[in-house]
Here is the input.
Amino acid sequence: AEVRAGPAAVGQSLASAGARRFVRAVRDANLVAAAAELRGFLRLPVSHDSLAPLVGFINLSSRHREMVDAWEAFGHARGGEGGEGAPAVPRTLALMARGLDLSLLLEGLCESSTAEHLAAATEVWGEMRRLHIPAAADALDALVLRCAESAAHETAFSAYLWALDASVRPSCAAGTALVRTSAASAEWAASAYAVLVSMREAGQGLMLELPRRRAVLQALAASLVRANEAGFARNVEAIGQDWEG
Here is the structure.
C-alpha cells in the first residue's frame, strides 16, 4: 500500500530526487528505471519508509529473474531496522509483513546458475523452513537438482525430505539426481537409499539408461555395504531386479 501511494506517502528519509524516482518506478512496475536508481537508494539507511519500496523492488526483480539486484536489495533490507546483529528471521518477518514473496525469491535464485545464488537460495530456503512457509514444488525441485549437482548433499537431502513432509512430491529428475550423485558415497548412501525407496513407492524410476542405472545401483549397494547397511544393499539389488523384470 505504501508503494502504491507513491512518493508523497513516504517520509523525509526518501526526500531526495533519486529516492522519489526509485519509489515511482517500483510503483509503476518499471524495472529498468528502478534498477537505474537502486544503487543510490541502497545508500540510504533502512527505515520504516524505505522497506515497502525495497520489498516491491525485490518482488519485481524476482518476477523478472533479475536476481543480482533482487538479492542485493534483499540483503540491504534484511540488514535494516534490527541492525546487523539482529536475528535474520525477525527481520525477514518484517519484510514479509510488507509483502515480500519469499517463494518467488527462492524460485528465482534456484533458476540462477551461479554458486553465489545457490548459497543464497539455500539461505532463503532455510529461513522459509524455520518460518514454516511452504515452498513451491518447482522451487524445491530446482534446489534439490542444483544442490545435488554441486555436491551440496546435506541441503539437497533436507530439501527433498522437507518436500515429502509437506506432501509435495519431488520430481523423478530430482530423485534421480540425488541417487546418482551420492551413490558412491558411504556417508550419504543411507539417504540415497531412502530416496530410492520413496521413489519406488511413488511409482517413479531412475531416469537413466539401463547400463547407467545398473552402474548407479551397484555403486549404491557397494556404498551401503561399506556403511554397514548390508540389508539395505540387498534391497537395492532387489529393486534393480524388479525394475528390469
